[in-house]
TrEMBL record:
UniProt name for this protein: Uncharacterized protein
Cited SUPFAM superfamilies: Quinoprotein alcohol dehydrogenase-like
PANTHER family (UniProt xref): OS01G0867200 PROTEIN, WD40 REPEAT-CONTAINING PROTEIN
Highest taxon in the source lineage: Eukaryota
Spans annotated as Disordered: 1-29
InterPro entries (UniProt xref): Quinoprotein_ADH-like_sf, WD40/YVTN_repeat-like_dom_sf
Length: 511
């Protein structure tokens, strides 16, 4: 009689690949608020990857201003976040699978931003930032017409800037499209124009503006027309004709990690469907495309890009990543229909990290966390917004492909929630089925979703934009770090505002 076949030898579990970056702090949610916005007309849907929300300035009373766009108009919304920003402890409500549940609130004031209203077509993109003592708000419609509104900040100068709209300290710049083509997605990116770049352009008049507006560089992309127009101080510098329709664009910062060794000007990154093209706009009309990187497999288009700064480990620094142990590394992150966050290093033109399965459906919007650089926010077509680690510092995959969260590859929850779950599991194993053991399933329902999806919450309709801004340090003892606000706008008029903060150090793994 033959002996039974030997059982196949089990393979040892794969060890998680060591991350080339320092884990950094964890990301801890502190509050999630849903503001219901009521406009004269229903929100216009926009393109799939439109960006109709941008943060504005804050006041001493704790009121925050945020800009939203609908149809041909732009609105300024005042939010009362003073109580949330000054709260001592977290006020987060957790639902099933650890999904954050928002608290309903009403905005303080909604008013039209008249200089940016009545544009020729639907506004597709808003961009806001502080440049040279001015709060700059830029908008572009689906035809390609752009408007730039600069408001002088209090205490930034002795006198008011010139203004075309009659209000002191405000300046409006109109940049009309050279030709009217088919309406579609349009995007823009703004960055300050440094003195070195002004000298390179050969236009001394660009160094000063009679209006007091700081010299700015603006890039406007039109998907249907397959072109990108670059403006310097209001003048058209050059027009880039892309091989495929652009779907996203961003300026890389000046310096080595922005792709330019002379630190005078960074490159312009343009997403052309499934690839990223890096352009040196100093080349004028002589070309200037320095590299094309194929990112998405299978031709999946890219919908969003973000610049992120990480800290290299000693091992990674020895292999050429960064200038030494603990040095900062500038990276370009992209996401799109592939549902993954792919991180590129512009200096070596290669992919160095990937967060697979960030969301369940195509990711249309993305933003990099500033207080916890190892985390990335990604918004998908299924109304989900999730934050997880892109750098792989959490170890192996902790996701479940059958979960409603889509199986987040390297996303881990806040350290406090993960530690509480592990402690309950230990107590349940030691108790042998009583007391804590009976409460274990309920705890798993609350915490397992957090371990899969990091921080996540769901909207009520399609996302129209994602914006992030930093808050000053609280100054409290115990190493309280900076905080950040993340705003997500939905088609039904819901404005979700998440306040998050850095908490401890990363690197904890959930088993």
């Amino acid at each position: 009689m033959s002996s039974p076949p030997a059982a196949p030898e089990q393979r040892p579990p794969k060890r998680p690949k060591a991350s080339p970056f320092e884990p950094g702090p964890e990301l801890k949610p502190e509050s999630l608020t849903k503001f219901t916005l009521k406009l004269p007309h229903a929100f216009s849907p926009g393109a799939l990857n439109c960006s109709k929300v941008a943060w504005g300035s804050s006041t001493a009373s704790g009121t925050r201003t945020i800009y939203i766009a609908s149809a041909q108009h732009t609105y300024a919304v005042s939010l009362g976040l003073g109580s949330a920003e000054g709260s001592a402890g977290p006020s987060v409500v957790q639902g099933k699978e650890g999904v954050l549940v928002p608290v309903n609130a009403e905005p303080l004031l909604v008013r039209r931003e008249e200089p940016l209203c009545d544009m020729d077509a639907e506004v597709q993109c808003l961009s806001s930032g502080t440049h040279g003592g001015h709060q700059v708000l830029a908008a572009v419609d689906s035809v390609g017409n752009a408007r730039l509104l600069a408001t002088q900040l209090q205490g930034a100068g002795s006198g008011g800037a010139a203004d075309g709209e009659g209000a002191p300290g405000r300046y409006l710049m109109r940049l009309d499209a050279p030709s009217r083509g088919e309406c579609g997605w349009t995007g823009l990116a703004v960055r300050p124009l440094g003195p070195e770049a002004i000298e390179t352009s050969g236009d001394p008049s660009a160094a000063a503006s009679s209006s007091g507006l700081p010299p700015l560089e603006l890039a406007v992309a039109r998907q249907r027309m397959r072109d990108v127009r670059v403006y310097g101080s209001g003048e058209l510098v050059r027009t880039i004709h892309t091989l495929q329709g652009p779907t996203s664009l961003t300026f890389l910062p000046p310096g080595t990690y922005g792709g330019c060794g002379d630190a005078s000007a960074g490159l312009l990154a343009i997403a052309e469907e499934h690839q990223v093209a890096l352009w040196d706009i100093r080349q004028g009309e002589r070309g200037g495309c320095v590299q094309r990187l194929g990112v998405g497999s299978g031709g999946f288009p890219i919908y969003s890009m973000a610049w992120v700064t990480a800290v290299a480990t000693a091992t990674a620094a020895s292999s050429g990543l960064g200038t030494g142990a603990g040095s900062s590394v500038g990276l370009l992150a992209v996401t799109g229909a592939e549902r993954s966050v792919v991180v590129l290093e512009p200096r070596k033109w290669q992919v160095i990290a990937k967060w697979p399965g960030a969301v369940k459906y195509p990711a249309t919007h993305m933003a990099a966390s500033r207080v916890a650089p190892g985390f990335m926010y990604a918004a998908g077509l299924d109304y989900e917004l999730a934050a997880g680690r892109w750098d792989g510092s959490s170890g192996g995959s902790a996701g479940n492909s059958n979960s409603s969260s889509g199986g987040h590859g390297r996303a881990v929850g806040p350290a406090a929630f993960v530690a509480a779950r592990n402690e309950q599991r230990r107590m349940g194993a030691e108790g042998g089925g009583g007391g804590a053991g009976e409460a274990l399933p309920a705890a798993d329902d609350m915490l397992d979703g957090s371990s899969r999806a990091g921080l996540s919450f769901r909207g009520d309709s399609k996302w129209l934009g994602l914006a992030l801004t930093s808050l000053p340090a609280s100054g409290a003892a115990g190493g309280a770090g900076d905080k950040e606000l993340v705003a997500a706008l939905s088609l039904s008029g819901g404005l979700f505002v998440l306040q998050a903060a850095a908490s401890g150090k990363g690197g904890e793994t959930c088993n």
